[in-house]
Write a structure and sequence with these properties.
Growth Hormone, Chain: A; mainly alpha; globular; 3 domains; 2 strands; 454 residues
């Protein structure tokens, strides 16, 4: 870009004009253009923030609602039910996410409506049934929007930027969880719900202004705008090959096709069993009951210990999501599952033989170390294995199966943990987690190959 600056001087009765050409640094334009290219793809992940707020909601809220003076009195048996309804909604949302009558842009926008309504219902709730409905709707909105977010980012960004932006769904979810852990214990649950409702409305308004993705413009019979948008966002992508990919999207492998393939028939069961071990080795129940767990440890101000716990959980998830491609799958799964077995066994031993509050710090430290290490392997890798080991035309089908199993296992593992610590000894909850982690270690050692060869 060229800027012309004119300056005139009077010399010997004559006017002389000087023209200065100032070159604007090209890198500034590149940075600005790159920012506006990726900014919409960053904004589409914002609904995950509202989901994260609800994902972390039980831990700081349950201790208050379990009290006799609570505005909505709940029982111990209802805690697991309330926690599970978020995952049930997520399961249903994922199941129906393949239906895209609104396209990507408006599909993402529409998915914020059940989230907004869910927070509104919880804000105005006066019975447990309303909390269940609210959590179901928020889970449904997240389950429906997540595949839309991934598709929008894949459609609108090039490879290097795409891999980074896809990680922001995890970032916004964990940011929401951390905000809930930090603010939730100190706010009335209605005030918190109102704040989350207002935030969700703001996110919905922001999403009204995101542009169409290139594929949407082609599907809307606006090829000139589609080509222009594509050349702007993905200048290295051939337009004709992009159009061909749009036409061949219906070639996605179904479950029957995958069963006929020997590689898929051997590998998918391993992946699904790893998902089961992932959910049954601790994260869901500990995430739901962390404040209560630290209180039973004998910690003063258990909400502060829970904040430390979730902070290390967030750091571990973000780090693993960005560097998972450098991690050896089997060794990471094996080592983290084995260490989790030892740490959960240690906590079970201490809670059984040393229930005194003087040991609270040691038990809390073990729990923080556990979640930090567990997330580096067993806690995260099964969720991201599909793109690594399967063909692109099968990823969507596998992800739907994986998410469904993930939700079911999270519900069951949380309920089992609640029943054990409610009707039996508290330390047996950690015996249960340690036993599952031990079986997971044996399974990984015997059945997970060092390399997956397609």
């Amino acid at each position: 870009m060229e800027i012309k600056d004119l300056e005139s001087n009077l010399v010997n009765g004559e006017v002389k004009t000087y023209v200065f050409n100032v070159e604007k640094p090209p890198q500034m334009d590149n940075v600005k253009n790159t920012f506006w290219k990726i900014f919409p793809s960053l904004l589409v992940s914002l609904p995950c923030l509202s989901f994260g707020l609800m994902l972390g909601w039980p831990s700081p809220t349950f201790p208050n609602l379990l009290q006799e003076s609570a505005p909505i009195k709940i029982t111990w048996d209802q805690t697991a039910l309330i926690a599970g309804f978020l995952m049930i909604g997520n399961l249903f949302g994922t199941t129906f996410s393949w239906v895209k009558p609104f396209g990507l842009k408006y599909g993402i926008l529409v998915s914020t409506f059940p989230i907004i309504i869910g927070w509104l219902i919880i804000w105005k709730s006066f019975d447990v049934i309303y909390i269940l409905i609210g959590r179901f709707l928020i889970g449904f909105g997240n389950g429906y929007v997540t595949p839309h977010i991934s598709e929008y980012i894949n459609d609108s960004t090039e490879n290097v930027i795409r891999l980074v932006l896809l990680k922001f769904t995890y970032f916004f979810i964990m940011l929401g969880v951390c905000l809930t852990y930090c603010v939730g214990p100190f706010l009335d649950f209605r005030i918190f719900s109102l704040s989350a409702f207002i935030l969700s409305v703001i996110i919905s308004i922001i999403l009204m202004f995101i542009p169409y993705s290139p594929s949407e413009l082609f599907n809307l019979n606006k090829p000139e705008k589609g080509e222009k948008r594509l050349s702007c966002l993905r200048p290295n992508t051939d337009v004709e090959s992009f159009k061909n990919n749009l036409e061949n999207q219906s070639d996605e492998l179904g479950l029957i096709d995958m069963v006929k393939n020997k590689y898929y028939l051997k590998t998918i069961p391993i992946l699904l069993i790893l998902v089961i071990f992932q959910q049954f080795t601790g994260p869901p129940p500990v995430l739901v009951y962390s404040n209560i767990i630290f209180d039973k440890f004998g910690c003063h101000n258990p909400e502060l210990y829970a904040i430390v716990y979730i902070f290390f959980y967030m750091i571990s998830i973000i780090f693993t999501s960005f560097y998972s491609h450098k991690i050896h799958v089997k060794y990471s799964l094996l080592s983290t599952c084995f260490i989790s077995t030892i740490l959960m066994s240690a906590n079970a031993y201490l809670n059984h033989f040393y229930p005194q509050p003087s040991w609270a710090y040691v038990k809390s430290l073990i729990l923080v170390i556990y979640i930090f290490i567990h997330t580096f392997g067993m806690g995260f890798i099964p969720s991201i294995m599909a793109p690594k080991f399967f063909e692109p035309n099968s990823i969507k089908s596998i992800n739907r199966i994986q998410v469904g199993l993930h939700c079911i296992c999270a519900i069951v593992s949380t309920k089992l943990f609640q029943v054990i610590i409610t009707y039996h000894a508290f330390y047996l909850g950690f015996v249960y987690l340690a036993a599952i982690a031990g079986f997971g270690t044996i399974f990984i050692l015997m059945f997970v190959p060092s390399e997956f060869k397609k």
